[in-house]
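Morning F.,

Quick status update on the modeling queue. The single chain you submitted on Monday has been processed. Sequence for confirmation:
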Amino acid sequence: MAATDGKQLQGEVHYQEPLARHTSWRVGGPARCFYRPADSDDLVLFLRGLPADEPLLWLGLGSNLLVRDGGFEGTVIATQGRLQELALVTPVCLRVEAGVACARVARLAAKEGLCGLEFLAGIPGTMGGALAMNAGAFGAETWRHVRQVETVDRDGVIRSRGPEDFDIGYRRVRGPANEWFMAALLKGEPGKVEEGRQKIRRLLDRRAETQPTGLASCGSVFRNPDGQFAARLIESIGLKGTCIGGACVSGKHANFIINSGGATAQDIERLIKLVQRRVQSETGVRLETEVKIVGVEMAS
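Structure tokens below.
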């Protein structure tokens, strides 16, 4: 790796890396540059060496993300397997780096006798993504438990911020421009170890019963409209099982779109738009996507 500020970068860099290898839908064209930082110091060094106008995409487990078939014309910073620090720092607080899988946070919280964080077991992403979108499951949301976050900007400056620095809502978080989450301090409540473990098992059993786990999807595609459920609206107009190419509306949960094999990102995006058109036409409700869509469209 090239030297920056007189120091040598330790992370991994790849060029024209196929993002289908790194997204839960198993689709997506190549990233011009794909970087895995060695640790937080290495990430800071890398950011300081980037051009100010370089497009950036932060990638964890690749859920809640659709990368178009033309790929991403910029730099992807991949935290999967990186930024993995997770520790109990007070009797009721965990410090979690952005690359830690949400399910791992839930398990440690239960092991330490902290309750309230069990819902994270049902979120198929990393803590960075959960912070960025206020991810939730089973009626709970990430930011209800956030006491402090650490962010990094394009110049590699790390800041400590509180929830008051962000506009937080249902599946959305707006904060200072060009800052990304590096870590968070999460607060739970004192509880009993076995009760926490049992709750996680119940939540995961419920998830397996109601969602198409084990299949290539991004998680929920659409936000729930006020007072309604996206899945019920989609199911009510008979769209369960509808397919475009290899992309299909799940027959188990209508707010999931499955890559049944061989789907392209274009198939998935077309199916998303079809669902939106039909639901609006037949129910009057405009479904907003929860999934983030990025990248370059391929010519039809």
